[in-house]
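INFO  loader      accepted 1 record
INFO  loader      residues=73
INFO  predictor   begin
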Amino acid sequence: PDDFPDILAEQLVRPVQWAATMQTLADSGVGTFVTIGPGRVLRWLLRRSLGPTVAVWGTESPADFERTVEALA
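INFO  predictor   done
INFO  writer      dumping tokens
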């Protein structure tokens, strides 16, 4: 708990390792991703990083969320 402010501060100033993180997840067997929030940027980044065959579910609204949960259940 004492390190929490320092950890948060580091997250603000360090670069995001998006491609490496997504590749690590894919290499670990993750094949389905869910994005939460408006827009398509994260979905586009996932497909660009991992290819068009990756399953990406976008949830921009409560109805999208329900659809995603039903499909993945």
